[in-house]
Amino acid sequence: MTTVAAIDCGTNSIRLLISTDGPQGPVDVVRKMEIIRLGEGIDTTGRISAAALQRTDTALEIYGRIIAKHQPDTVRMVATSATRDAENSDAFADLVMARLGVSPEVISGDEEARLSFAGAVADLPDDGRTRLVVDIGGGSTEFVRGVRHSDAAHSVNIGCVRMTERHLTSDPPTAEQIAAAESDILVHVDTALAIVDPRGLATSLVGLAGSVTTVTALALGLDSYQPERIHHAEVTYDQVAEVTDTLLRQTRQERLTSPVMHPGRADVIGAGALVLRTIMERAKATTVTASEHDILDGIAASIR
């Protein structure tokens, strides 16, 4: 029996998955997330802040204890957008080595996209449909097209943290700020779609990561964050548009009144929803299927 530990460190969160072999496939032993906002200010300064490094160190200490308890056969840690962009990523790497005893792999946007696709489609029906998988992160969004394996992938620097810090600086954002964010997002989405799916082959849109799953939970009207109900739930463009408009009208405090809202996501969820809505508009997708399985599961599969 093989047990593996996968860690995904993005711009907003750091997540841990420990899984082992089961009769029907991998079984989760631990699945945990901490909001660390590693990418706070990177779009402006180009550096990971001391406060972000401290938050990361605290999370890594917790994860190190969990990993030591479960003694996995292999550990792989992947770092994505924030670490790719940071001038002082060596300080981050030193923290990881000190806490976990492994070096973080700072992967390219294309590799991030492929790992996300692998994690997302593993438990989807093998029905021959061409899927467009979008992973909306804190600093970047990955676009991948394929059936069971990725055929084309592209990463663009639009994410919920980056767009919030760049454009949506008021609470709530002004109409002018929202328009500026939409224009920025639109350019990147059109670029990605022209590269990944220029002939419009994809017939199914699958959305990953916290922005998508939170919007889905809001659209479903859940009274708590319930991964089992969110996973593979399908919501319409109209539902996404309505949730997006509501989020962009609300203050951070108003968003926090929702029972599905993670406190570390409340200030950036409006931007994440805006990215999702724009993708659906430009890809002419009438629905999106949310997946709780993503790059984290792809990382685990890569070392199993």
From TrEMBL:
Pfam families named in the record: Ppx-GppA
Superkingdom field: Bacteria
Protein name from the UniProt record: Exopolyphosphatase/guanosine-5'-triphosphate, 3'-diphosphate pyrophosphatase
Gene Ontology MF terms: pyrophosphatase activity
SUPFAM superfamilies cross-referenced by the UniProt entry: Actin-like ATPase domain (SSF53067)
Residue ranges of domain Ppx/GppA phosphatase N-terminal in the record: 22-298
Gene source species: Stackebrandtia endophytica
